[in-house]
Amino acid sequence: MKPRKIRLNRAEKNLWLLFDDGDFTLPAEYLRVYSPSAEVRGHGGGEPKLVSGKMHVGIDRIETAGRYALKIDFDDGHDTGIYTWQYLHRLAIDYVANWDHYLQRLRAAGKGRDPDEQAVKWMG
Predict the structure, then answer these.
(1) Which 3 state secondary structure label does DSSP give 34?
(2) Which of 11, 36, 12, 21 is nearest to 88 (CA)?
(3) Measured between alpha carbons, how far is 88 from 26 in angstroms, rounded to an integer?
(4) Helix/strand/coil (H, E, C) string of 43-90?
(5) CA 66 to CA 52: how far, in whole Å?
(6) Residue 98: count of CB within 10 angstroms of its CB
(7) Are the C-beta atoms of 23 and 80 separated by less than 8 Å?
(8) At 119, is the pLDDT very low, low, confident or very high (cuts 50, 70, 90)?
(9) Spatial distance between the Cα atoms of 36 and 56, rounded to a whole number of angstroms
(10) Three-state SS at 9
(11) Cβ-based neighbour number of residue 13 at 10 Å
């Protein structure tokens, strides 16, 4: 399912997508920690790598990848994930459950969303 409209809002650090079944706003941090790249997803079918400290990440650029996907370049240098229309739609539909699961994983690992917060933990 290809989105009918896509809008990058750099100031708000999010991506707005209009699909046939609704419109969705996906934060850059969410897109970054759920990147479909091998760096994050790995090469197997297990739990993806836990990416922490991305609370302030933004999106530098988006571009279509053929007729089937979007390439997102993040301002932390990550630019290897190809987000298919199907994957973006799944991220949009499952946002609440995915985000809750991500926050639970962070807590369990003793990590946080804020990169500065993690430095404080090391010093404390």
Answers:
(1) coil
(2) 36
(3) 9
(4) CCCCCCCCCCCCCCCCEEEEEEECCCEEEEEECCCCCCCEEEHHHHHH
(5) 30
(6) 16
(7) no
(8) very low
(9) 20
(10) strand
(11) 19
Q: How far apart are CA 10 and CA 62, in angstroms?
A: 11
Q: Which two tokens stand for residue 11?
A: 């100031």
Q: Dump pLDDT digits (tens) for 84-112.
A: 999 999 999 999 999 999 999 999 999 99
Cβ neighbours of residue 89 closer than 8 Å, sequence gap 6 or more: 1, 3, 17, 19
Would you state the structure tokens that stand for residue 107, as one six-digit string?
């807590």
The DSSP 8-state label assigned to residue 10 in this structure reads T
Mean pLDDT over all residues of the chain? 91
What pTM was computed for the model? 0.90
Q: How far apart are CA 96 and CA 75, in angstroms?
A: 24
**Distance between CA atoms of residues 113 and 57, nearest Å:** 10
The sheet with strand 5-9 has its strands ordered as 5-9, 14-19, 22-27
Tokens at 2, concatenated: 């290809």
- In terms of C-beta density within 10 A (0-12 exposed, 13-18 middle, 19 or more buried), how is residue 47 classed? exposed
